[in-house]
Amino acid sequence: MDQNKTFDAIVIGASAGGLYAMINIFKQLPANYPIPIIVVQHRSKDERSLLEEVLQQKCSVCIKQADEKEVIAGGCVYFAPPDYHLLVENDGTFSLSFDPPVNYSRPSIDVLFETAADVFKERLLAIILTGANADGARGMKKIRKLGGTTIAQQPDTADYPEMPKAAINTGAIQHILTPDAIGSFLRECMKNNTVW
Amino acid sequence: MIDNEEYRQFLESVRFVYGYDFTDYAEASVIRRIRAFMESKRVGSLKDLGRMVLKDEAAFEHFIQDITVNVTEMFRDPFFYKSLRKNVINRLATYPFIKVWIAGCSTGEEVYSMAILFREEGLLERTVIYATDINQDALQKAREGISSINNMKSYTENYLKAGGQHSFSDYYKAKYNSVLWDKSLRQNIVFSVHNLAMDKSFNEFQLILCRNVLIYFNQALQSKVIGLFYESLCSFGFLCLGNKESLLFADKRTCFEEIDKKEKIFMKTK
What we know:
The complex is a heterodimer of chains A (196) and B (270). With 196 residues, chain A is of the alpha/beta class. Chain A has one domain (2-190): Methylesterase CheB, C-terminal domain (Rossmann fold). In chain A, 30% of the residues lie in helices and 20% in strands. Chain B is an alpha/beta fold and 270 residues long. Chain B folds into 2 domains: 4-67, no CATH class; 78-268, 3-Layer(aba) Sandwich (Rossmann fold). Chain B has helices at residues 4-18, 27-41, 46-54, 57-67, 78-92, 109-120, 136-144, 152-161, 219-232; strands at residues 98-103, 127-133, 146-148, 172-175, 178-181, 189-193, 205-210, 233-241, 256-260, 265-268. In chain B, a hairpin with a 4-residue loop joins strand 9 and strand 10. In chain B, helix 1 (4-18) packs parallel to helix 3 (46-54). The model of chain B has no long low-confidence stretch (mean pLDDT 95). Chain B: It comes from Niastella caeni. Chain B: Residues 1-269 form the CheR-type methyltransferase domain.
């Protein structure tokens, strides 16, 4: 099983309904969860940090907005800031861009997924959650092509099933799981990563 | 797939042949833009792209305009403009003559926003705004001062949130599906090509705006460009960066004081 692989990073894409799915997943993780988790949640550009604050109250793992040039490290869940794309650089840092929206979205899941695939290749785990559009599908294809592991939220557990469905329809998804099962999967993965 | 070594070589060739230096740009963004260009032109590999642009100056020109264009909007981050009104304008008003540099102005939305703000604060008559960008096509659009009418709803909302004192429609004329910014706003604006990665300081300013440009540079180039801004500011001049940008990687960071931490407004104090 893929839980036995060693992952350098986990990327997650979420849109409408994402908050509850993420609470169910992240509340299962310990504060020192060793694998860095990087999330694009579609959000309003007028909202500055409410998402992180709400999630932090429910989880023990550290939740923060990714900073420009920040070094990606374990023990943290990083969120793309509102109205910026979040990209992963080759040297293991973040960069931001204000390029036009992709799939009508900024931040866009595809932008994160595609750049993370370039850097982490087969040592990347990607998860697509609830949402009402098709962002992330193209990124999932690329991640799979480069040997990464792919998970979609089981569509009938999603508030908005279109996004996981779109990813599943690309044929690139290996596991279809409920949010609870995704949380257990992440805990299993932890065993193969030495705590930093 | 773009191989890292190939990418470095391509950038070196571009620098050697045309003098454009992208080697200190944040890679992930540049690669995304190059890929998008290659897809649109149906170019299969970076080698083919090299063959296409390195020998054909017109093709290169097209390429460079395509990958260096940035997007922007009128009164983007309205609270930044509100903070300018509150924290900066009264100090600028003490100068008999004000020079502003908007670095990386792209298609000019920020330039016209500033012109509107300066007019409402009664300073536009004695201000010159130097608006520069690396991208000539974008600058041409900025000079023309035309925008799509579809943007006006969100621009009007931004304008009001930014503390706008009039009706936003006072500042443009609409025809067909476009709007033309009021020509009198443009009287004291100088548009010119300037490459932040290569070019030097060209004047002394009381205010420099460079928002959401540094995010495309690596730490070394960020520090170099902040150094350029430092040289180009008068004592107690103001530097404004984008919301997610900082002076963290700049050698000159200790020479600035924070005026508004959230809106990234700094004052040169040393």
